[in-house]
Each structure stands twice: as C-alpha cells, then as structure tokens.
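Sample A.
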Amino acid sequence: MSKEIRVIKEKCKACTLCVKACGYGAITIIECVAVIDLAKCTYCGACETSCRFMAIEIKVDAVDRSQFGLYSGVWVYGENKNGVLAEVVLELVGEGQKLADKRKQDLSVVLIGSQTKALVQELFSYGVDQVYVLENKLLEYYETNSFTKVLEEAVQKYKPEIILFGATSEGRALAPRLAARVRTGLTADCTSLDITSEGDLAQTRPAFGGNIMATILCRTRPQLTTVRPHVMSRAAKSSTAKAGKTIVLDTNITKKDVVTTVLEFIRSQKENVNLSEANVIVAAGRGVQSEDGMAMIRELTELLGGVIGASRAVVDAGWIDHFHQVGQTGKTVHPQIYIACGISGAIQHLAGMSSSDIIIAINKDPNAPIFSVADYGIVGDVFTVMPALIRELKKSHG
C-alpha cells in the first residue's frame, strides 16, 4: 500500500492551522508555504482535516481486499480465573453481538484455562453462537507464551474477522503478541466500536493525550482491538439457554510452552479500592484545593455509602492514592451515580466516567466541560455547595 501527501502551493495561505494540528511536529512554514517532513509524517490526516483552504491532499491506494473473504466471525477472548469470567467479557459479548449482527456473522468466545466447562453454558445463555475451548491443567493460570500459542493456532485455522480483548493487564499483554504473530494491526484502549459501510471495524479511542478521539481502521485481517472495561453495556441474559456449538481446540501444550510458573499469589496490603464495581462515586478535583478539602469528600462519600474517586490533578498533588484515580490513565467506571466535585472535565477524565448512569457536577465555572456530560449541574463553589448537601443528608439520616 502506497501513500502520498502533498501541499498545493497555490491554495496554501500559511495560516499555521496544519502546524498546530500535527501531533508529530512534521509541518513547518517556509517562505509562506507549509512544508511536510515525510520522515516524521504518519499520514494520520489531521493536517488535511484542519486545512480550511483544502491545500493539503493525502492519497492512499485502494486496500487489497481479495483475501478478506477468507475471514468470518466475531471472537471475544474469554478471560477467566478460577472458573469465573472476567466482568469485561460479558461487556464484550454485548458489543460483539451488535458487530456480528451487522456483519451477519457468528459470535464466538475463546475459553482457555483449567476450569472452563461450566462457563460454556453460561456463555450460551448470553447469546453466544460458538465457544472455542481448550482446557488443560497447564493452563490453570494465565501465562503469555502458552496462551499466545493457543490463540495463534486457533486464528490461523478458523480465521475470525474480528477479535475483541478486554483492556485488562491480561488482554494488554496477549493482544499485541497475537497481532505480531498473525501479522495484523491492533488498536488499543478503544471506547467505541462500529462497522463501516465497507464492512471494516471502526475503532475509536482517545489520542494525543486524550485531546481528540481518533477512529482507526485496520487494513489487514483479522482486526484486533482491546476495549476499556465499563465503557460497553453488558450483554443481557436470556431466560432460555441458546443451543450453541462447542469446538475443542487441538493445540498441544506441553511444559516447555509454559515459560513462567506461578508459585504464589500475594495480595497487596494497600487499601483495596473497588472503583469499577461502585454504585456511587464521589470524585474530587483540583477545586477541593488541598488535602484538607478532601475531608468533606470523605464525609459525603460515607453518607452515600459510596467510594471516593479523584482526578489526576488530585492524585498528582498527593492528596489521595492513585488507586482512586478515574480517567484515561486511571480507572474507567460506570456507577449509578457519579458526583464530580470541583472537576473541570478534561477529556482524559471524561473518558473514564462519561458512561455513568447519572452524573452530578459541582463547579464554580459555568463553562466547565464537565457540564457537557452532566445530567445535573450545580454552578457554585464546592466549599459552599458540599456542606449544604452534607447537612441535608444528615437530616434525612435522622
């Protein structure tokens, strides 16, 4: 595949919009004309989109689709531990079903482990068409080398069109290795998926530090993506179990394939903050001003029976541990109620909490971006609003 980018000198006004849009520093203005450094250019198209005078043109030759017909089906990697599916799997099943329906293809889950038998029927009850299974005592614990081998052989044999992984520590380790083995692309940490008119997987994720949302297409097959937990809706369970198909994978795993042995699990002694499963989160932003300001956050959280969240600014300031951080570089959450206290609403933070059922924002700046996603907005100083909320809650609690 060849690419070409050119500046049409007659149209260029040297306005510098393209210079500002380029995230790679590939464009400079020389003698009143934009000049592109091809060694730095990634052909992302940001400059072409930003140019109001249509002075930049990118040409990409047509994709060779002659082999795409060999690939079919949507797969979900069925991450599991001790016979229990990771929560993100059912979220991926729900999203995978939408993609499979649009492509008019089957939805499958791949189960690797040593306690997977009970999970097969559970997956069928969520509408999965097929389950690929490899159960082996050597695969009791996740181990990158052996799990990659199983998936690589399965992909080469059955040729799925799309494979979805959760953006967990396991998925983030496994997906890129599989992509390298089968010589395809991978889009990481996606927050939205769709099918284009040409049948490609449109993968949307935050880019340039979360300042923009980029939609990425893969020009090879299969199409691999990791999806952030708690950004997709969980699959609905059917009252009648589906008569799905079970396919046993024939990969031969030996002790030589398992290069890492788990000796013992040691639980961290630090505070266990379960943001991902919290129904109520009270999140602190820079507006609380200091560690002392966190006292009212803790009091309100306790009254609501919730969990404390925080923006990156609060964590960086040392007012609370990083386990509480919500956002692109923290946890993605989906509580019933999310109360943002003194949080301006940078896109990095919104990426981690905008799918909450009800968002209540408290900020003294009426133009704060957090209000764009809030269901209820209170324009006011957190040091005035929050004490009033706490007093009312105490009255209701008797």
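Sample B.
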Amino acid sequence: MKYDIYTEVTSRIISQLEQGVIPWKSPYFSKIGFPRNFSTGRPYHGINVFLLGSLRYTSPFFLTFIQAKELGGNVRKGERGSLVVKYGTYTKQTEGTASAGESEEHRKFLRAYTVFHASQVEGITFPEPENVPELPANAACDRARAIVAAMPKAPAMHEGSAVPCYRRSTDSVHMPERRFFTSEEVFFSTLFHELTHASGHESRLARPSLLENKGIDAEGEARKTYAEEELVAEMGASFLCAHAGIIEAELENSAAYLQGWIDALKSNDAKGWIIRAASQAQKAADFILNIQPEA
C-alpha cells in the first residue's frame, strides 16, 4: 500500500486527541518556545509545530539523522524519530510547448521526514533548555494587548456582545465585556480566535475557508468549510497565545470538544485539511504579528 502522508499526519493527530491531548493547545509552546531545527536554527512551522510540540520534550531542538552525523554526533541505537513534513511547490518542465514560459508547470509537493530530539542524540552538546520564564498574568496580558493593538489592517472591535464572534459583513469583531470571562487570559485567547477569523477577510489574506464559510448551520460540503475555518482559528489563537506568554489550560477542554474534532478528522473527506488548516493558521498568526514570510 502506498504511503500517504496526509493520512499518517491525520492519524497521529487523532491518536493524540483520543488520549486527551490537544496538539494545538500544548503549554510547552509558551514554556520552552517553538520547536526548531538545531542545525539550521530555523523554527518549524504549521503542522510541524503541533506534531513536535505535543511530544512534551523539555528542549526545543531537533535534528535529522544526517544532520546529527554532520555535526559529529549520532542518534542513539533503538531511538524512534518523529514525523515532520515539508510542503512546497516546484516547477516541472513539459515538452511540446511553443515557448519557454509555456513549458513550465507549477506543482505542489508534500514530503515526510524523520527528526530526532536532542535527548535522543549523543556526541553533540546542546544548549541547556532555555525555559521561557512564566510571565505573571498581567505581563502576559500586556503582551497580548500589544499584539492586538499592533495588528495590521485591524478590523473594528466592539465589547458588549452576547457571544464572541467575527462578522465578515461588517468586518468587525464583537466580544462580551471582560467581566464575563473567568480571567483576562481567557478573554485574550478568545479574542485571538476571532482575530484569526478576521485575518481571512478579502482585504487581508483572502482565506477560502472564511470567504466560503456559511456558518455553524451549514450542511454538506459547506459544513466541512466551516469546520476547517474553526480549526484555523483554534490553531491561530494558540500560536498567538504562545507569543504572548499565555499558557492555555488543556484541562478546560470538555470531552465533547475533543470528540467533535475526532469525529471531524475521521470523516472520509477530511484527509489533508489538518495540514492545510495548520498552514493557514501559521499565515494568520504571522499576519497579525506582522511577521514577514521567509523567502
């Protein structure tokens, strides 16, 4: 049977959810930072953040088998690596076309790689885990407040709504008054969710899962679009919480919340959208944080 990366990634996320672990709500992002490749120094992005961050390692560094060798070390015998994926495009040259421009065909690719955590490698001295100091609630909320204030092309924001929501028709975010939230951190986590929705507006990232979203009462194909956009917002909020230093409490998530995502990911037509949603969530968080995409 042909190896299917989309199915493998989805299966791993489902397995974690079934164990009560929500990959996109790992407190480790805020405590030790985002996982990164030790050889290149570059952080992982998109779905790789959740695949690696949810493993609960206490250091953010990973290497491929070859990178460990190149740095003078080696992976300990018997260690099992972790899956990461690389998504991109390439240009395929085709024959029988009239001009050079017409002879190029752009295609997408997804490749699977295996990486090993620093604790699985010997012969290399890794930096001591540089734990991010846990910020007092007021300091984390100050950071969150600054993120909101600095968002480029921000939507209108209003407090006093009965429920938190983003209205695309008016390009506005509506939040209940802060006194209705159990804490200010919960307020900002919820606000980040709605701002992630707002990032998909046609004046910003023009995200199809937002532009084609028919809402919670949608059925059939439209229901899938709604679910994907909600997952983008969930993941985007987690990225932003980590940047602010807000540690999300996993235990607050109900069994119904977990089961809802398990059922959605197990549907026959969900293959692939967990990877797409994570990629879109990364783009949304980067937009809100005004981080320019890497070349």
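B remarks: The mean pLDDT is 86. The beta strands are 36-37, 61-63, 74-75, 82-93, 104-117, 121-122, 156-159, 165-167, 172-175.
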